[in-house]
Amino acid sequence: MSTGRIGPLNYVTENLSSPHILPFETPPLNTGLQVNFSNLDYYKEQWQRGNNAVLTDFFDEQSALNLWSYYYNKPDYEYDLAIFPDPKWDGNFEPNVYPLYRCKPGDPSIPSRIAHSLKVNDDGDFSYMYRRTEDYHPLLNCFAEDWFIKKLEYITGYENLQFTWDMTFISNYGPGHYNGPHTDGANGRIAFVFHLSKDWKPWNGGLFLRMDHEWTRADAVISPSFNKFAMFNVFGDGYGAPHLVTEVAQGCTNRRISYTGWYQ
Q1: pTM as predicted
Q2: How many CB atoms lie within 10 A of CB 20?
C-alpha cells in the first residue's frame, strides 16, 4: 500500500494573518461568517482519546449554504478531473514533482487513464479519480487566519502549525469517483476535511472508511455530511491510519463536496 501526497501546485498565497479572537468567532473579514469553536475542551479531550476531532455545525448556516451552493453549482468543466497515477509514472516520487495528470473536458486520454487508475486500485496500490479545484471561495480564507490556527493548536497540542494554500483543495466526487486506500504520507501534522455534502445518502457511496494498521478491515465508516469539520493526526505512527473513500454509485445525481488539506 502507498502513502498519499498531493504535492505543490505553485499557488500564490497571501498573508492573511490577524489578531487572535475568541469563540464563537466572527472572523476579521467582512463576510458575515461565524465559525463554531465552542466546547474547545470537549474537542481537546476527543483528540486526546482518538487522535481526531469532529466539529459539527462548523460555519453559520447561511455561510455553509453559500459555500455549498458555490461549489455544487460550479460547472464540471471548471473543475479538473484528477486521475492518479499517470500511466507513465515509474512509481518513484521526485522532489517537488507530483505525477498527477489533471484532465480537461474532452481530453482523449481520459478513458485510458481511468482504466489504468482502476487497474492500479484492483492491484492493491494507491490510485484515485475525482474532480478538484483550487478556486478558493473567500469564506475559506479563515482557514489561513492566525485566530483559526490558534484554535487548532489548542485542540491538538501542536505548536506553530503552518498553513499554505497549495496543500489544500476542493474535491467534487460524482459517479465512479473514488480515493483508494492510503495514508497521508509526509503532507503535514494534521489532516482536515470540511464536509459540504448536502442531503447525501449512504447508498450514494463515497463513504469514508478508516482501516486498521494491518490494512485488513474497516474500523470506522462515515457517510459524507454537511457543515462538519473533521481533523486527524497524521504525524508519526506510520502517518496516521490507512483510509479510503469508496466509489460513488453510478446514477448518483448528488455531489460529494469537501474542502481538504493539511497543516504542517
Answers
A1: 0.85
A2: 12
